[in-house]
Fold:
Amino acid sequence: MAMVVVSAAALAGCGGGGGADSGQPPVAAGNGNPAADPAPPAPPSSPPAIPQSSTPNVQPIAVNALPTRTRNMLTTSVTVCAPSTNDCATIDNVQVDTGSSGLRILASALPASLDLPAVAGAGGAAGAGTISGSCGVFGSGYTWGAVRTADVRMAGQIAAALPIQVIADPTLPAVPTDCANSGPPMMSPATLRVNGILGIGLFSTDCGSACTRNALPRWYYTCVSGGTCTPGSQPLTSQVGNPVADFAENNNGVIIELPAIPDAGAQSVTGQLIFGIGTQANNTLGGATVIRTNTQTGRIVTSADGQTWPNSFIDSGSNGMFFATTLAQCGLWYCPPSGATLSATMTGTDGAAITLSFPVGNAQALLASTNNAFDNLAGPSNTMFDWGLPFFFGRRVYTAIEARATAAGDGPYYAF
Structure:
């Protein structure tokens, strides 16, 4: 699924991997959808046996005031270590993004002494002295960085020697032209608005099988230090990876659990990121509604107001809900004078559907407050229906990873 990350200002909207603040234009982050994925698996005749685990699997998450004044941004802390060592750094203010796959950390957030091995370039001029460069394209701009390996630790889980993107890595040559033409650079805390993005979406890697066969534009590059970068293919094992998919246990998906909040918002909210689906007593599916996604794009269908959006998704990295309606607008947000309650229907690839009601507040009034978390922040989009972070408040939202077994069958799917 393509990673869509958006952040926004007081009257600016954003979808996927971003947030809203007090005076900046919307920031949309990129595509975490693989370029290609496996064909859908045949449904099992009986629920598969899911490996059970007793490893701690709960990671604290929060929506708080951030140094960049970005609102409605869900964050956590991630510990990054040199592989097979205890030489580690814990990075705060990393966005939790179910709309993308892969961990991306700003080089400026990592200690200079932390030695993360570079992944050699795999295509073009691959060989000794090369380094793999990664371009992450988002709706609001791009990230450019080196692919390096790290042990990634969260709760009691470890993703060992995981390829991650180190954004603005100083060892790389200049940004390739096609990547730089993707929009504004998001290469600093001020422009990325956080210290990194934790992509824990529907897929195991950021690109997928298509990047193993071809040198696709704006994905992976083979770079020569002090020289240039050439687009190249990238093996799955060297692609920027979803840490959860690389855990030894609790590796078939995640649950985000956030409390309900008042329509006026809340100054801060804490919740849980739970690893695994049906692997422990705290992550069973129970009676959750399962909405299966397209196995190649991660998309579902949403219908509302007589319109249908096949390009729909559920994304904790979007700071608002984004869709088309006739509500009054203020800047890039919706601002109905007295608020409104709307409804829309989600439909999965198997035809399962559910109709949901949701509130839309007056963004001008909401963002004039000192609150940082909102369940009713929404803005316009004519190309997609983005069920962003407001959808998550008051719910347990499951994101099941492609081709990983669960009691409801293999991912990818959403459930809530």
